[in-house]
Design a protein that fits this description.
MLTR_LBD, Lambda_DNA-bd_dom_sf, 284 residues, 434 Repressor (Amino-terminal Domain), alpha+beta, Cro/C1-type_HTH, five-stranded antiparallel β-sheet, Helix-turn-helix transcriptional regulator, Beta-Lactamase
Length: 284
């Protein structure tokens, strides 16, 4: 572990990012360039003391989980993230399999979306970052672990928990869309990848999935218009826009409704309700 290099890099990256870059208000009397340590700690969900100790060349070696959180908070590119891991004494993540590092470009767009549901998901339908309206609509995905984070897994492994977010008339189409998404990821990542692992897991667990998987459905296109059901607000008709990374391993989803409509009012109401009545499901 190179404490000098790690500290210098963290300070330089923190000072290079403005609050606006990460969706935070600038505030008054800001004396230092870039972000404050408290803001980095808030974004990375860790203590200010921990961030301070790293920047002052003190404390234990950070874990890979802590480094991944810092990489996301500081909006690091893949090359910058790899450097962070190496100077902290860890091997850089395998880019062929890593799925938790969020594309900085998508994060910058998400940071500016505050009033409608938006989230970044992996090509296996795992929410990586959600804004507050998305958490209110779909539940807080950060409460889930492992394959439970994948909407594809939950759709077939726990249909009783997550299918209620769509009208029954739409379930068959959703099933085909989930399998088609996984088949596309499987083709890109290979049979020994996480996509292959998920496919084998669901083949053994769900007869419905196995039949659809054998049908060889492939698609990456997201439905432009859908109906989402919230337990308190009811049915909400939304338009869904998708912005992919260049390699199509991550996508930013934004859900909107026409202005001055009942559905737009329902989306606004979600901000009031928050996540209090929404189960933790990774739906999309």
């Amino acid at each position: 572990m190179d404490r000098e290099a790690l500290a210098g890099f963290l300070v330089a990256r923190r000072e290079a990012i403005s609050p606006a870059d990460v969706g935070l208000p600038a505030g008054a009397r800001r004396r230092t360039p870039g972000l404050r340590r408290e803001e980095v700690a808030q974004l990375a969900t860790m203590s200010v003391d921990y961030v301070t100790r790293l920047e002052q060349r003190r404390g234990p070696q950070p874990s890979t989980a802590m480094l991944a959180a810092l990489a996301r908070a500081l909006r690091l590119t893949a090359d910058e993230r790899d450097y962070l891991f190496r100077v902290a004494g860890h091997s850089a993540p395998d880019r062929a399999t890593v799925h938790s590092h969020v594309a900085p470009g998508l994060l910058r767009v998400l940071d500016r979306i505050q009033d409608v549901p938006a989230m970044i998901i992996s090509n296996l339908a795992e929410p990586l970052v959600q804004n507050e309206p998305a958490r209110a609509l779909f539940g807080d995905a950060s409460l889930l672990e492992g394959w439970e984070r994948s909407a594809i897994f939950q759709w077939f492994a726990h249909p009783e928990n997550c299918r209620g977010m769509y009208p029954p008339s739409d379930h068959a189409r959703q099933s085909r869309a989930q399998v088609a998404t996984l088949r596309a990821a499987y083709g890109a990542m290979g049979p020994r990848s996480r996509a292959g692992e998920l496919a084998r897991l669901l083949q053994a667990r769900s007869e419905e999935f196995a039949q659809l998987w054998d049908a060889q459905i492939v698609a990456r296109r997201f439905e432009d218009h859908k109906v989402v059901v919230h337990p308190e607000v009811g049915e909400i008709e939304v338009d869904c826009q998708a912005l992919f990374t260049e390699d199509e391993t991550q996508v930013l989803l934004v859900l909107t409704a026409p202005p001055h409509t009942e559905d737009a009012s329902k989306l606004e109401l979600l901000a009031v309700l928050g996540t209090q009545a929404t189960p933790a499901t990774p739906g999309r």
